Amino acid sequence: MQESLIDEALKKELSVLYQAGDRHYHSLAHIQAMLALASEYRHLLDDPQAVEAAIWFHDAIYDSRAKDNEAKSAELAEKKLAGRASPHRIARIAAMINATATHQLPPLRDEGALNDAALLLDMDLAILGAEPAVFDAYEKAVRLEYGWVEEPMWRAGRSAVLKSFLARPHIFYTTEFRLRFEAKARQNIERSLAALESGTA
Fold first, then answer.
1. Were both Cys, which of 62, 109, 149, 199 would link to 154 (CB 3.0–4.6 Å)?
2. Are the C-beta atoms of residues 77 and 54 closer than 8 Å to each other?
3. Which CATH number is correct for 8-126, 1.10.3720.10, 1.10.3210.10, 3.40.50.720, 3.10.105.10?
4. Which pLDDT tens digit goes with each residue over 30-84?
5. Closest to 130 measured CA to CA, from 30, 23, 26
6. What is the pLDDT of the chain when averaged over all its residues?
7. CB 78 within 8 A of CB 94
């Protein structure tokens, strides 16, 4: 079994970032939920340690006013993982982190790496297919993170994001996540859009 790329010292260091006061959704609980899914679907992962590292780092830098959080998080991963993994493996982790900016698959040639990226993106979006009460709590938490955005702008921006997911042939890349979360995710998003558009959200 490969040694974990993220040791206890690094987990503690990253945990501090995720516990910042302005993080209502992109917090340690989000990381723990993704790690639980990674553990559940470990048998499908080509490089479980690389996926674990990508999960830990993908929201390490988070400022709701910034547009380069993922790029900065990937840079932090490259810096902190230097010497712990091969440059090729670190590049693969950075590509997965950067992919969470758009939730589009990164241009990886390696089939195993591409599969891991698909699973990572699906884990990141699994909240969309949660039970309605859990999804609603997520929506409220994201709104708190964007508390500086005025209501009309928020409604327009959030609606655009949600519509972009609905417009996809599939929200989730993998068969496993589609079967488990796709139908509920579409129901949650449609309900959220209706609330945003009617002004009741």
1. 149
2. yes
3. 1.10.3210.10
4. 999 999 999 999 999 999 999 999 999 999 999 999 999 999 999 999 999 999 9
5. 30
6. 95
7. yes
